[in-house]
Amino acid sequence: MTDFQQLMQLGQKLQSKMTQIQESLESTSVSATSGGGMVSVTVDGKGQVKQVQIDPGCVDPQDVEMLEDLVLAAITEAQSKAQSVYEQEMRKATGGLPMNIPGLPKLF
Q1: Burial 55-84 (b: 16+ CB within 10 A, else e)
Q2: Which of 81, 93, 3 is nearest to 44 (CA)?
Q3: Cβ distance 34 to 73 under 8 Å?
Q4: Would you tell me how many other CB atoms lie within 10 Å of the CB of residue 40?
Q5: Which of 9, 45, 49, 56 could disulfide-pair with 28, CB 3.0 to 4.6 Å?
Q6: How far apart are CA 107 and CA 46, in angstroms?
Q7: Could you give the CA distance from residue 22 to residue 89 in angstroms, rounded to a whole number?
Q8: pTM
Q9: CB 67 within 8 A of CB 52
């Protein structure tokens, strides 16, 4: 019975750590740029877009498609970086256990 109690305590500690990680990720900022810095995107640690900055010099009414591509590229890169941060934090919290454990939140 002691092993079961220890397992329950470990589960509670892991759940507490997961809550801390989620709160930390919400306040983490990850940025990426595209087009040599013409477009910059900032996301939180969960990958939610928080800010988009566009250099006025790259706004060409004749080539809106290029600007759309630059914005998409910056968002994709920022979200990829945020996912890496999330995965690193999960590995720290789980001690290297697989991250697809039933009952644990999956952000991405």
Answers
A1: eeebeeeeeeeebeebbebbbebbbebbbe
A2: 81
A3: yes
A4: 19
A5: 45
A6: 6
A7: 10
A8: 0.64
A9: no
Identity of the residue numbered 34: S
Alpha helices in the chain (DSSP H): 2-27, 64-94
Question: Sorting pLDDT into bands at 50, 70 and 90, what band is 27?
Answer: confident
Residue-wise pLDDT tens digits, 56-101: 888 888 888 888 899 999 999 999 998 898 888 888 877 766 655 5
Out of 3.60.20.10, 3.30.1310.10, 3.30.70.260, 3.40.50.300, which CATH number does the structure's domain 28-94 have? 3.30.1310.10
